[in-house]
User: Fold this.
Amino acid sequence: MALFAAWLVHDLEEAFTFPATSRLLAARLGTGRVVVSPAQSVLAIALMGVLVGAACVRGARTQGKSRLYRAVLAGLEAHVVTHIATSISFKSYTAGLITAPLVMLPGARVARAQLRRGGSPLLLPSDTVRGGALLFAAAIVSHVVSRLVLGTDYPRVRIPRT
Assistant:
């Protein structure tokens, strides 16, 4: 449950801040197609919550042996790095930066320690690769579904001159 609780706190921050980060990305890319509305952000995150919640339930039922749980745990732990790297790249705050290292990482580490104490630790880099690939694909699908359900209205994006 530590993993799901950490994810929930972290993704609440993302739900409120991702639309602004998407506008930064849009300005950098020169296209409004990546802009996410607050409603799209909340729906996409809720869809991810279904995956994370299901994985955590599977993890509890299998004492951490579920491949889905292990992939989600490894992916969420690695996801912390993407938040830090994105903010460094943008040279500013981006969605999830505060709670990624302060909440998500400790929650993932608690879950990892539980696996270790249970005799089935995450050891392989391939765990992280599989988890990252799963979460990346799920995030893309979540955003596509949110746009299909809520529609798109791409705003014009001003590109700052450098």
Q: What stands out?
A: The two ends are 47 Å apart (CA to CA). Residues 116 and 145 are 36 Å apart (CA to CA).
